[in-house]
Each structure stands twice: as structure tokens, then as C-alpha cells.
Specification:
heterodimer; A: alpha/beta; eight-stranded mixed beta sheet; two-stranded antiparallel ribbon; 23% strand; B: Maltoporin, Chain A
Chain lengths: 189, 719
């Protein structure tokens, strides 16, 4: 009683769409191409890199370090955006990107990005790694209040950040006044 | 035909090859031209408007239900001018326009003007009318530029959302006021409609953002199949304010107030008083007004402990004025509904493995139906207040290695019609990695009785002929009802009542509510799979089997002959069972960074049968009012010189129950942005036919309208 999909008509529609696309494609490949809008992840990765320029680590923390270590604690949410950091140098050292599955594996890191999973277990992370000169960066509200140093905060589609100066002091980090000025300041709960 | 097909396939293939070559070329090009973000200053980085969907998409990807989200960007590029039209390309959703101002929208079958098994929310407010459990889509439309996203959940959500979330939930979410700063003026004009809209958004201090907006619209009437014009033209004016306040880092307060008013024309078929057996087209006009206010407060006690509370008040008043006709001089009626709703929910972790959400709600509905005694709809009692209390709990349990989650939920509701209703659900989610998600669910949901089903003294259905209604079983039923035999004989004598389908005496069915009518029940089994083998491509498949019990049907109650027509009393009963099953597939492909393709296909089969044949009418009622197959293909292209081209093709198979053929249609949008803040768009809708019918309303018969091709120009200026 019911007819099945009229394959021919659908094929026509598909062909029409594809043909139009082909017609449209020709001029496009020869033009320069619009600049793509950066993703949230790319901006955050770039900020992770920039932060290092506005934070001073204690001599203890940097002593004997041949590389500057930026670590992802837990599965990294950033995906391909981390490619932005390829070949970069921080504090006159080559940037080394490390992926740690647990706090124990993240010893010796200068910046640690704490992923969602470990964010909810920040207490455990700080027990292992706290007060050792680490710039802890995390996502989501409350990370800084609970003892993280820097927290990304999305506001109206833009990436801002929150700083907990107490936590920075605990880590022996000196945060530049410029970074403080751009951030929202919170204390530890 | 085969030759043609081959020809198309070959040209398609050729184009694809060309395209892939182009893509490779474009990629090597764009890599070099991209700005190195790490070279930018902190201030610049902080000022970049980013694509933020990633987290939501991630969360969405790992949801244990069939969710589909339409973003504001999708809406902008959809060529749609109303909310129902935006929903047309969503898998599992069936949209049919009945006439210029009336739509039938449903999820997973049972499409009607007032599709009852669907919960529709706007910013957390229910916007379906409790009178029919359906939505006045014309009245409830909003400024589409303000819509942040529309979330469509197919399948039952009763465990979280409560009664009416049986076949699906449509949640319209408007933008935060912080995201609509500055000014916007949009004007459009075309063959079928015109509109002017304005919006201004600003801030007070650091913490408060607001917007104020208004939109006026005019819509042309549809045509009838005999070529005459309908009287269904309409106009509307709506506006509102929204304020978002964040007094502290942990508090968010939202206030929304909307107002809407308008004037809708409608036509309907009435038995002619002069020539027995014939129908004549009557018209009525329906002015309406309404508004709502919502206050929501969200507070984060800590990272994982969140509280949200909201209260809203909503009011809608519709008037209907008939032109003088068979039922006497100019008939008037008024239908007013007021809703006060309080809702709260608290989410918190319990141990390391449990995420719990608990919630409580209270809703109070008042309504009043006034009017002349022969008006189409009369209620007993004509004024009524009813309350709904509800509580729910949902626990998301992380199982083995965080790859498995079990989500258990239950909602208990108490309503004045049927007492306690319990709606549990269990969902299992497996996410072996970020690229694959498998989920399964079993849930129970109920659809509580609407006011009409319980309390309609009569809802006089502007007439239809016996043959059209397929009422032979009814006629047989009357034959078996001894007392009515003589009436039936009389009916037959005056023009052949019923039996052979050669009817000529119009029957005016009068739907009568029944105090015995209880909730419709559903047990649903669902299974879904999502995959994203590459960043550019994603696929979503969901299948379901729905077992319905106690579905609404109508039973012949009595028959009264009037001058030239017969009044057929029809009572609501729960005497029907049903089974629905189907599969929905959708795929998104970002073919290049300037071309996106999206395809959707849905298969649906719904069958229902009455428990006791005999007096029962319309055994096929509802089940053949949704297409068995629907498909859509969308193409969105960003062309050079700031030009966008969007093409949407869509197909629905025939509606056997309504004598509507299959429909292949196409919409297109061509937009040019000469300056950053100015957009000029040309929009064509229903381009393939002059006009076509999408639906015939058999419950409140509106005449058979046809939807016309339309062309529209739209200018949007932001400042």
C-alpha cells in the first residue's frame, strides 16, 4: 500500500546539491580563504602557553630542569589544539608536553592542566603535588576556590580566567600584576 | 529511468572527486594562512569570540537518550521563519503545516494539530495548552534570532520531565542576555509573510545584562484545493525583556517577561441550514493575547552541588467570533488559561560513584470557557482549578572504569484527574572512548488527561461527511443500538446515511469528555549508537519500540438529528492499544571548512487497535497521520565574498489516514554579508510546487488548505 522512498527523486536532489557545490567550489579554491574562527580549545591552549610569561617560578622549581614541562593530568580535552605548542620555548627551555594518567605521574611538571575527572578529585591531586611550585590550571567554576591557581571561565563566549592568589603563594609562584589585573580574583573556600 | 539514474550517479561521483581534490588544496592553503594564536597578546586572546559548543557536544555525545540539538547557527541558516519549520529536518520529528497559522508537530508518531504525547518547553516553561495537551504554535512563536538552541529529545522523558513527556520533549532555550548585547533590526517581506523585529541589549554595572525586544508579523492566507483563498491570514505582535544577573560567582538569576497578542483567521465547514446534506464554509476570527513571567535562581554550593529554583506565571486568552451561521447569529467564545508553576532541583554527588538529582514541583492551572451555548467547545464545569504535585530523583551511577554508567530515575506526580502517576526509567550508557557511545533504555511514561478529554460537555466538530470519517463501523454500531434504529432509518431516508460510503447527510460529531478517562500509558524500549570516526563526521542511530496502553479513542454515545444534519455524540474512552516502532538516523559531515552536509532519515510504523469493536469509532485514528518514511538533506556552504548558500531538501511519505500524498520539497537560502553587521538574505520555501497539502485536520476540521511556495527577502542589521 505504501510506496518505498522514491530513490530516483532523492538521487536527483543529491545530485543537484552536489552539482551546485561543485560550481561554487571553483572560485573558492583560488581565493585566499577566510580566517577560521578559533575554537575554545585553541584559545585555551594559547593562554596556557601565555600564562608562563606572566608567572615566575621559584628557583627551586626550575633548578635542574632542562625542559619546561606542561602536563595534562587525565585525558586531555584539547585534542588537536595542542599542536599549537609544537616547537615552542618557555623560560629559555624547550617546551615538553606530558600526559599523566595520575598525580603520581605528574611529578616535576611546571604547569598542570587538571581535566574534568581530576578536577572533581582536586583534593587528592593537591595532596600528592601541592606546594611543589606547580601552576595548576583547570576548567569549570570552583576550581580556583578549591585550591587551584588558575581557572578558565567562559563569559559571553570569550575565555577569561580566575586567579586564586593564596594558591599561587602556596606554590611559591609570583604572578605578574598584569595577569592579576586581567583576572577575577578569588580566595580559597 | 535506469539510464537517468546512472547519469546522476556518475555526475555525483565526478563532483565528489573534484571536491576531494579541492578540499586537499584548500587544506594545504588554510594551514599556512592561520594566525598563530600563541603570538597574540593576552588581551587579544581574551577578546576572541570562541566556538564554545565543544563541551556541550561532548556532553551530548555521551547522553543516554536520542537527543538532537539545533544551534542558533543552524537556525540562522535554516531558511525557516517559524519554530515548527525549524523542526522539520530533525530526525524522528514530524511537522505538517495545516494552514497558514496552524501546524501539527509530533515526535515518533500520532501527529495531530494538538499532538498530545509531546512536552514543549520554552526556557523551562511548559507552553502546551492543558486544554488539549497540544501547542498553539502560532501564538507561542518567538523571535528566532534570540533562540540559543532547541533541544529535541525523542522518546519518553517522564522520569525527569513528568506527564506529557511521552513520545518526546522539545525544549526551546533563548540566549543569555549577555550574548545579545547591542542592537538588532530585522525586516523581511515576501509573498506569504512580512515581519519587523528589533532588539536592544545592554548592561547595568558588571553583573546585570538585559535585552528588550519586539516583533510584528503579517501572514497571508493559504489556498484551498479548489483554488479559492482561505480566511486563515494572521498577524501577531510580541515582545519581551530578559535580564541575567550574576551577583556572585556562584549565583545566576534570570528574569524573563514576554507578551504576545494577535489576530488569527480560521475557516471551518458547517452543515448548511438551507440545503440539507450540503456543507458551507464558515469563518471565524480569533484574537488572542497572553504573556508570561519567569524568575530563576541557580546557585552553586560547590563544584558539584548545584541548586536551581524557578517560578513562572503564564496566561493565554483566546477569543473566537463566528460569522452568523447555522447555529444562530454571531457566536462568541472565550478560552482563558492561567498557569502558576514552581520548580526546584538539587544536584549533588554521593560518594565517588553517584551523581544524584532530586527535584520538587507544584503547578496550578485555572481556566475558564465562556461563550454562547452553541459554540464549538463547551466545558463542564466551565471554570476549573487543578493542581499537580511532583517529585523526582535521578541517580547516575558510574560503573566499571567510568566507561559504563547506569542512570536510574523516577518521577511521582499527583494530579486531580487521575491521582498518583509513577514514571520510572532505567538507562545504560557505554562510552568505550570519545568516538563511540552505545546506550539502551527502558522507561514508562504517561500522558495525563487533557481538559477536553475529561470535561468537554461537547466539542462540536464542524461537520464532515460520513464517508470522509470512515464511519461505517459507527453506523453499524448504531444499528445495534436498538433505540437509535429509527433515527438511523430516518438518516438513511434523508440521503443515505453511512453504510455504503455514499453519505450525503452531514454528521456533526460532538466529542464529549468522560469522567472515566484516565492516563494513556507507554512502556518504551530504546537503543542508540553514536559514532564520530573523525572530527568531521558523526553518525547517530536510534531505534525504539513503544507499547501503548489505554490510548484515547472515541465511542459512539448517541445520535440526534438536526435540520439537515445529525449530531453524533462521541465519548472519550481508553479502549485502545498500540505499538509503535522505528529507526532514526542522522549524519553530519563537515566536508570542508566551508561546506557542511547533514542528512536525516526516519522510519516509523504505528499501529493501534481497539479492545472491543462495536461502538468504537476511528480505529485508525491518529496512527496513519505521521509519515512512515521521512528524509532530509541539508547543505550549508560558505562561498567567497561573504556569501552563504543553504539548500534543504525534504521528503515525507504519504499519510494514508488523511489522504495526503508523499511530499518532496525544497527550501533555499542565499545570504550576503557585505559588511560585518549587515546581512541580506533571500529565502525560498516549498520551491518545488505552487502549493501542496501537508495535513487535513480531522479533529477540528479547518478546511483543506494548501501551503504555497513562498519567497522572502530579509535584512538583518546589528549595531
Amino acid at each position: 500500500m505504501r510506496k518505498f522512498l522514491p530513490t530516483r527523486r532523492i538521487a536527483c536532489a543529491v545530485a543537484a546539491v552536489v552539482l551546485l557545490a561543485c560550481l561554487a567550489m571553483h572560485p573558492l579554491t583560488s581565493s585566499a580563504g577566510d580566517v577560521r574562527q578559533p575554537t575554545e580549545h585553541e584559545v585555551k591552549v594559547a593562554l596556557l602557553y601565555k600564562f608562563a610569561n606572566f608567572v615566575d617560578w621559584s628557583e627551586d622549581a626550575m633548578q635542574g630542569a632542562e625542559t619546561f614541562r606542561l602536563c595534562m593530568l587525565g585525558e586531555s580535552p584539547f585534542g588537536d589544539a595542542l599542536e599549537l605548542l609544537e616547537g615552542k620555548r618557555i623560560k629559555n627551555r624547550p617546551l615538553e608536553l606530558l600526559f599523566a594518567s595520575s598525580p603520581e605521574h605528574a611529578r616535576g611538571c611546571h604547569i598542570i592542566f587538571v581535566n574534568q575527572k581530576w578536577n572533581s578529585r582536586l583534593g587528592e591531586v593537591l595532596e600528592v603535588l601541592g606546594s611543589q611550585g606547580v601552576l595548576f590550571v583547570g576548567d569549570g567554576s570552583g576550581f580556583a576556590r578549591r585550591g587551584g591557581v588558575l581557572e578558565f571561565a567562559l563569559e559571553g563566549g570569550r575565555v577569561g580566567f580566575v586567579i586564586n592568589p593564596e594558591a599561587a603563594r602556596r606554590e611559591g609562584l609570583v604572578v605578574s600584576s598584569k595577569l592579576m589585573r586581567l583576572a577575577r580574583i578569588v580566595g580559597t573556600d | 529511468m535506469t539510464k537517468n539514474f546512472l547519469h546522476y550517479m556518475l555526475s555525483t561521483l565526478g563532483c565528489l572527486l573534484l571536491l576531494l581534490a579541492g578540499q586537499a588544496f584548500a587544506q594545504s592553503d588554510s594551514g599556512a594562512s592561520d594566525v598563530d594564536l600563541t603570538e597574540l597578546s593576552l588581551e587579544t586572546l581574551m577578546s576572541i569570540q570562541v566556538v564554545t559548543a565543544s563541551r556541550e557536544e561532548q556532553a551530548l555525545f555521551k547522553t543516554a537518550s536520542a537527543v538532537y540539538v539545533i544551534t542558533s547557527e543552524d537556525i540562522r541558516r535554516s531558511a525557516a521563519t517559524s519554530i515548527p519549520d525549524i523542526l522539520r529536518t530533525v530526525p524522528g520529528v514530524n511537522v505538517a503545516q495545516i494552514n497558514a497559522n496552524t501546524w501539527a508537530v509530533t515526535v515518533r508518531g500520532f501527529n495531530q494539530r494538538f499532538s498530545s504525547k509531546l512536552l514543549v518547553l520554552k526556557d523551562g516553561m511548559t507552553i502546551y495548552t492543558p486544554t488539549f495537551s497540544g501547542v498553539y504554535w502560532d501564538i507561542r512563536d518567538t523571535l528566532i534570532e534570540d533562540v540559543d538552541r532547541i533541544e529535541i529529545i525523542r522518546g519518553p522523558g517522564g522520569a525527569l520531565w513528568g506527564a506529557n513527556a511521552v513520545n518526546g520533549i522539545i525544549n526551546i532555550i533563548t540566549k543569555n542576555a549577555a550574548d545579545t548585547q547591542g542592537g538588532l533590526v530585522a525586516a523581511s517581506g515576501g509573498t506569504e509573510s512580512g515581519s519587523v523585529a528589533g532588539r536592544w541589549g545592554g548592561t547595568v554595572g558588571d553583573d546585570l545584562a538585559y535585552r528588550i525586544w519586539a516583533e510584528g508579523e503579517l501572514h497571508d492566507a493559504s489556498v484551498h484545493d479548489d483554488g479559492s483563498r482561505g480566511q486563515d491570514e494572521w498577524e501577531s505582535l510580541k515582545g519581551g525583556i530578559r535580564a541575567d544577573l550574576s551577583p556572585t560567582d556562584d549565583d545566576r538569576v534570570t528574569f524573563i517577561a514576554d507578551f504576545f497578542t494577535g489576530h488569527v483567521g480560521q475557516n471551518t465547514w458547517i452543515p448548511s441550514p438551507n440545503a440539507p446534506g450540503s456543507l458551507y464554509l464558515d469563518e471565524y476570527e480569533s484574537p488572542y493575547w497572553g504573556g508570561n513571567m519567569l524568575l530563576r535562581w541557580e546557585h552553586d554550593f560547590s563544584k558539584d552541588v548545584d541548586l536551581a529554583m524557578q517560578v513562572f506565571f503564564d496566561t493565554v486568552e483566546l477569543k473566537r467570533r463566528f460569522k452568523p451561521g447555522i447555529y444562530g447569529p454571531s457566536q462568541k467564545a472565550r478560552e482563558a488559561t492561567y498557569t502558576l508553576d514552581f520548580d526546584s532541583q538539587l544536584s549533588f554527588p554521593l560518594g565517588s560513584r553517584h551523581d544524584v538529582i532530586v527535584g520538587f514541583g507544584y503547578r496550578s492551572i485555572w481556566d475558564s470557557f465562556d461563550g454562547d451555548p452553541y459554540w464549538v467547545l463547551t466545558m463542564s464545569p466551565s471554570h476549573l482549578q487543578r493542581s499537580i504535585f511532583s517529585a523526582f530523583i535521578q541517580d547516575t551511577i558510574a560503573l566499571w572504569e567510568d566507561q559504563w554508567s547506569l542512570i536510574l530515575g523516577c518521577k511521582v506526580e499527583h494530579n486531580d484527574y487521575t491521582g498518583f502517576e509513577v514514571q520510572p526509567s532505567a538507562r545504560l550508557l557505554w562510552t568505550p572512548n570519545d568516538r563511540h557511545t552505545v546506550w539502551a533504555a527502558v522507561s514508562r511514561a504517561v500522558r495525563t488527561p487533557s481538559r477536553v478529554e475529561r470535561d468537554a460537555l461537547y466539542m462540536r466538530q464542524p461537520a464532515m461527511e460520513v464517508a470522509n470519517m470512515g464511519l461505517s463501523p459507527a453506523a453499524a454500531a448504531f444499528a445495534s443500538m436498538g433505540g437509535l434504529r429509527s433515527l438511523l432509518a430516518l438518516g438513511t431516508a434523508t440521503g443515505g446515511f453511512g453504510m455504503g460510503g455514499q453519505a450525503s447527510i452531514p454528521v456533526v460529531p460532538e466529542l464529549q469528555g468522560s469522567g472515566d478517562f484516565v492516563s494513556e500509558e507507554l512502556i518504551a524500549l530504546e537503543l542508540g549508537y553514536r559514532m564520530q570516526p573523525a572530527d568531521e563526521f558523526s553518525l547517530d542511530v536510534a531505534g525504539f519500540v513503544n507499547f501503548y496502553e489505554k490510548l484515547m479513542t472515541m465511542e459512539a454515545n448517541n445520535l440526534v438529528l438536526g435540520p439537515g444534519y445529525a449530531l453524533l455524540g462521541v465519548k472519550t474512552t481508553n479502549d485502545r492499544k498500540g505499538v509503535g516502532y522505528g529507526v532514526e538516523v542522522s549524519a553530519k559531515w563537515n566536508a570542508t571548512d566551508w561546506w557542511r552536509l547533514e542528512a536525516a532519515y526516519s522510519f516509523l510504523e504505528v499501529d493501534s487497535w481497539v479492545n472491543t469493536v462495536g461502538r468504537n469509532l476511528l480505529p485508525q485514528f491518529e496512527t496513519e497521520q505521521s509519515p512512515q518514511h521521512s528524509a532530509s538533506l541539508q547543505s550549508s556552504m560558505d562561498l567567497p565574498h561573504n556569501i552563504e548558500l543553504d539548500l534543504i531538501g525534504r521528503y515525507t511519505s504519504e499519510l494514508d489516514g488523511l489522504d495526503i500524498g508523499d511530499i518532496m520539497e525544497m527550501d533555499a537560502r542565499l545570504a550576503w554579508t557585505p559588511y560585518e553587521n549587515l546581512e541580506i538574505a533571500l529565502i525560498g520555501r516549498n520551491l518545488l510546487h505552487d502549493h501542496h497539502a501537508e495535513y487535513k485536520d480531522r479533529i477540528v476540521y479547518l478546511g483543506d488548505s494548501q501551503i504555497e511556495r513562498s519567497v522572502l527577502a530579509k535584512v538583518t542589521w546589528r549595531f
